[in-house]
Specification:
It contains two helices and four strands; from the N terminus they run E-E-H-E-E-H. It is α+β, with helices and mostly antiparallel strands. It has a single domain (9-82), classed as Transcriptional coactivator/pterin dehydratase (Gyrase A, domain 2, 2-Layer Sandwich). It has a four-stranded antiparallel sheet, with helices on one face. Strand 3 (42-46) and strand 4 form a beta hairpin. The mean pLDDT is 93.
């Protein structure tokens, strides 16, 4: 998990893409992972920038679910960079 900021009670990361469509494609992949894990982050899109915040709402804190989601989100980006 690189470059995730710890901003209690949240984990937060900003991603920058070459254009809007690339950003949206990434968000769609994050949505699929979120559904699989049944853990949904806040996602903000500003043209080619995507900001993701995750925390466990029921505990108002960062839990193992958030670290797992963050790791999987980073894996999506790694895989897309290898293609």
């Amino acid at each position: 998990m690189s470059n995730w900021k710890l901003e209690p009670p949240k984990l937060k990361k900003e991603y920058k893409f070459k254009n809007f469509l690339s950003a949206i494609s990434f968000v769609n992949e994050v949505a699929k992972i979120s559904e699989e894990l049944n853990h949904h982050p806040n996602i903000y899109i500003y043209y080619n920038v995507v900001i993701i915040e995750t925390w466990t709402h029921s505990e108002n804190n960062i839990t193992e679910k958030d670290y797992e989601l963050a790791k999987k989100i980073d894996e999506v980006l790694e895989q897309s960079n290898q293609e």
